[in-house]
Each structure stands twice: as structure tokens, then as C-alpha cells.
């Protein structure tokens, strides 16, 4: 029970499995997600990103933390602060040190600083600032290198054009340097996935069916030797996801797959909306990611 998230992530990577991270944009969604993890005997992260309290209804780091204390089950869950950007999706500077510092002081198990919109040198500096702060408290840090598209307010270029060009994909040599100079525990990489849309007019649209560059994942894993993270996990063709796990993706973020069923029913019936979240989370674990029973592998 006392294992750190750093140990659990390394264990997942070594065992060829992955840890799903479920984003919680509405606090009520947390209980059915924890229940789904417990019922499927799957170890996962409960997560909230800054955009989920700015653009949705997650409240803030403290509200997420306090809600988690009510529902947590540490046989199957840990708490992660996802995506606190240095520059956000609207291209505004963020007081990322304050947001992340609050989460670290509250007792989050891990945090993510997202400097991916910065030049490499600035990303390294910003990320190392958070790593030094977090590691002093035993908190794990996820960084990001490369551009996982989808959260921007403007239109996205055609997906096939993006994938073919590799535009924004994480560079393996830059990743080697980034990990060595920042000391991050794991790395979010851009290898073909896209984030779910978050603007009011597009957030209920079906996601693009994405692919992944397994070759790029392999190359980054070899140069960094740290567990890798896949953001935008909803909507990727299953065969790519399963293969990516075999090649070093140790954490997969899931948001749209559980958010859209909740939003479709939340004004009609809270009970039905929460049942839909539970059903969607179970389906993701069992069918999309094939991670049912993973807790027994991660806690040997």
C-alpha cells in the first residue's frame, strides 16, 4: 500500500502494462470512476487539469483533493494534477508555480507541468523548477515535450497532414536532453494522438480517429529510459494503443470518453449521468485498453 507512484509507474512499464489516468472535469464524476477501477481490479490515476477548473467545473486543486479524500481507494488509485501549462491553450501566461505548489503542499501524488508551448531551453528551465520543488516533497513530476494538438481555440490542421509530416512530434534527441536536464519521472510525448476539443462549440463533437507512430515511441523510449505518457487516449484505434503499451507507454490519459456521456445526460438526470460515467470507464478499461486486473500486476 505504501508504494510511491514512481515505483508503480516503473512497475507498469517493466511489466508491459499501463496505468489509465481519468480526467475529472465535474467533481461528481470522481466516485463512479473510482468504483469502475475497483470493480475491474485496475490501478489508475484520478486526475484534473487546470483547464478542468477554468473551462469546466472541477473547482480547483483544493476542491479536487478534498473530493478525492472522500472516495479514494489506494489499492486502485492515486491522485495526479494533470496539465498545468506555462502558456495555456488561449496563449496566456499562467502562474504555474503557484498552482503546482498548491497541489504539492496539499499532498497530490504526482503533478504535471506543461511547458510544451515554450522553446526547448525555456521548457527545460520551467520543468526543472517544478521538479526541484516536487522532489523535495517526494512528489513525482510529468513533463511534456512536443505538441499534442486539440486544445487550441482555433481550427486544427487536417489530421492526415499532421501525421504524415510528423509536425509537433517529440524529437528523440531533444527528449534525451530534456529528461537528463530536468529529472522528470515520466514524459508526455506527441506521437500522433490529439486532445479532445474543449471549446463550448466543439466539446461534444466526436473525436478524430487517431493513429500512433510506434517507431517514434520506440526511439523516444530508447533515448530517455523513462516511462512515457500518452495524452488524448480517447479515439485512437485500439491496435495502436495496445502496441504502444508494449513499446513503453506506461500511462494513458482518458477524458472525452467519460466526459461526453456525462454531459449528454447531466441536465436530464444526475443519476443517469453518473451511471453513464461508470459504464464508460468500465468499457475503456475492459475493452479499449484491456487493463482489467492490472492492479495484480502492478502490486505483485
Overview of this protein structure:
The chain is α/β, with parallel strands linked by helices. It has a single domain (5-298), classed as TIM Barrel. It has 13 helices and eight strands. The chain has helices at residues 5-14, 30-39, 51-54, 61-71, 96-106, 120-135, 159-165, 172-182, 214-224, 238-246, 256-265, 270-288, 294-298, and strands spanning 19-23, 44-49, 77-85, 110-114, 140-145, 186-189, 228-230, 249-254. It has an eight-stranded parallel beta barrel with strand order 1-2-3-4-5-6-7-8, surrounded by ten helices. Strand 4 (110-114), helix 6 and strand 5 form a beta-alpha-beta unit. Helix 2 (30-39) runs parallel beside helix 12 (270-288) and helix 6 packs parallel to helix 8 (172-182). The radius of gyration is 17 Å and the shape is globular. The chain starts with a helix and ends with a helix. The mean pLDDT is 90.
